[in-house]
Design goal:
single chain, 108 residues, alpha/beta, four-stranded parallel β-sheet, 4 helices
Length: 108
């Protein structure tokens, strides 16, 4: 089995916690997973232009829990790479209106 490639876009201090949470789930489902970490959206977009991934776990607020600018990034990614499954994470609580106004939006 090939496994999956998972990109994470979040603040560096929370990335290990995200991996700790998701790695057992992905290993159970796919037997193998590789994580690639990013702290800026520009690094992530440059990477996606040259590499394929299966899953993106992205901070929806991009560091500001009252500002959901990550939704714009997710919309860009889902438009350009619709095959990527996007998991949205946030310390804030985006409303349905905020998430649905940026379509396409995250999958989970």
């Amino acid at each position: 089995m090939k496994g999956i490639k998972v990109d994470i876009l979040d603040r560096p201090e929370v990335i290990d916690g995200i991996k700790f949470f998701y790695k057992p789930i992905f290993l159970l489902l796919f037997k193998k997973c590789e994580f690639v970490d990013f702290s800026t959206q520009n690094q992530l977009i440059d990477f996606l232009d040259n590499q394929s991934i299966d899953i993106l776990i992205s901070d929806l607020s991009l560091g500001n829990k009252n500002n959901f600018q990550g939704l714009n990034l997710v919309k860009t990614i889902k438009t350009k790479w619709p095959e990527v499954l996007v998991i949205g994470n946030s310390e804030g609580e985006p409303t349905y209106r905020q998430t649905s106004s940026k379509f396409p939006t995250f999958d989970i």
